[in-house]
Specification:
Elements: H1 3-11, H2 18-25, H3 32-47, E1 50-54, E2 56-60, H4 89-101, E3 106-111, H5 118-134, E4 138-142, H6 148-157, E5 161-163, H7 173-176, H8 182-194, E6 198-200, E7 203-205, H9 211-224, E8 228-233, H10 250-263, E9 268-271, H11 275-279, H12 283-286, E10 292-294, H13 306-316, E11 319-320
Parallel strand pairs: 1-10, 1-11, 2-3, 3-4, 4-5, 5-6, 7-8, 8-9, 9-10
Helix pairs in contact: 1-3, 3-10, 4-5, 5-6, 6-8, 9-10
This protein binds iron/sulfur cluster.
Iron/sulfur cluster binds near residues 64, 68, 112 and 114.
């Protein structure tokens, strides 16, 4: 396969054909470096060598009535996790203060559950107003299924972006969750967009889906054109129905990230949960396709510490930054050896540091 031609197509705004997408996902191990070099050309065009770091704040944990098979907080999970209702307002605001002091441009409030009650929307709105009154920081909310009225209330309070993942293809969704549908998820995203919220929506790979499902969900994400696409690799948490699934290899994760980049060239693509478990010693390679990672763990699982992530990024010759509220840097630079490029591109606007040790944290 001529992977450089796939990069050309992506940069020209053309969609890969189904056969081309399959060829990416079935590329031989000894061609993965060529594949990554092509994906990196697209990533570099939009994002230069920037890497965004994100930190999650689990504002409400466990106690969820939904039956998402991958989730340690679900009604079908026996996983031993902390369970608590919404934190106190001051605890959430204080965490936002710490994020701001650390230099974060975006703070994400995450709550378990099918979706917020009216009282919970009032509570989150109140918290958001207090944070926005006090500091200049972008706010993301991940609070489950929303209708337009609730999304509008959150937007009015000051939420900038909503996270709500598609997770997997429409075909495979009933194998993963029965208490809500793929259409419910799309409906929430439509409501959020109508309310003027930016969209953050992505997938979880390694749940037993086929390559066709991976292509389907990445294609649906292309149609949605979200600002941000988190790619999770299943962490098979003991006590969840998917605890025995171990299907991913580091190279296959890299293929999936490369395809995510080709199909969604300008999106902020974030390597999310499972990076440490599945990419292992090849975590850094993922950043040739993706431009964003989580640090300091996931909702109920530990993860790579910020300092270690910083070291990894520095070793790559990349830089920990966030553009203006995470906006892509169009045509950030095409020159240089794609697999060894290190120096920040001239002409990239100076970004703010996100949560970087040594930046005042
Ligand atoms: S993913 Fe969300 S909705 Fe599904 S079980 Fe977990 S907390 Fe509940």
């Amino acid at each position: 396969m001529d992977y450089a031609r796939l990069a050309d197509k992506a940069l020209a705004g053309e969609c890969l054909s189904r056969d081309e997408s399959r060829a990416v996902l079935t590329s031989p191990d000894d061609e993965v470096l060529d594949l990554l070099a092509a994906a990196y050309r697209v990533r570099r065009h939009y994002w230069g060598n920037q890497v965004q770091l994100h930190v999650l704040q689990n504002a409400k944990s466990g106690l969820c009535p939904e039956d998402c098979n991958y989730c340690s907080q679900s009604s079908v999970s026996d996983a031993e996790i902390d369970k608590y209702p919404y934190l106190e307002k001051e605890q959430i605001v204080e965490a936002a203060r710490r994020a701001k002091i650390a230099g974060a441009v975006r703070y994400c409030i995450v709550a378990s559950g099918r979706g917020p009650t009216n009282n919970e929307v009032d509570f989150v709105s109140d918290v958001v107003r207090s944070i926005k009154d006090e500091m200049d920081i972008e706010l993301c909310a991940c609070v489950g299924i929303l209708d337009e009225a609730k999304a509008g209330q959150l937007a009015e309070a000051g939420v900038d972006r909503l996270n709500h993942n598609l997770n997997t293809s429409e075909r495979y969704t009933p194998e993963i969750v029965t208490s809500h549908t793929y259409e419910d998820r799309l409906g929430t995203l439509r409501a959020a967009r109508s309310a003027g919220l930016e969209l953050c929506t992505g997938a979880i790979f390694g749940m037993g889906e086929t390559d066709e499902d991976v292509i389907d969900v990445l294609s649906d994400l292309r149609e949605l054109a979200p600002d941000s696409i988190p790619i999770n690799f299943l962490i098979p948490i003991q006590g969840t129905p998917l605890e025995e699934i171990h299907e991913l290899t580091p190279n296959h994760c890299l293929r999936q990230l490369a395809l995510a980049r080709f199909l969604n060239p300008s999106a902020e693509i974030r390597i999310a949960g499972g990076r440490e478990v599945h990419l292992r010693s090849m975590q850094a390679m993922g950043l040739y396709a993706a431009n964003s990672i989580f640090v300091d763990g996931y909702l109920t699982e530990p993860g790579q510490k910020t300092a270690d992530a910083q070291e990894m990024i520095a070793d790559l010759g990349f830089e920990v930054v966030a553009g203006e509220a995470g906006a892509p840097v169009e045509n950030a630079g095409e020159a240089g050896n794609p697999m060894t490029a290190g120096a920040p591109e001239q002409g990239i606007r100076q970004p703010e540091v996100v949560g970087a040790p040594g930046s005042g944290a």
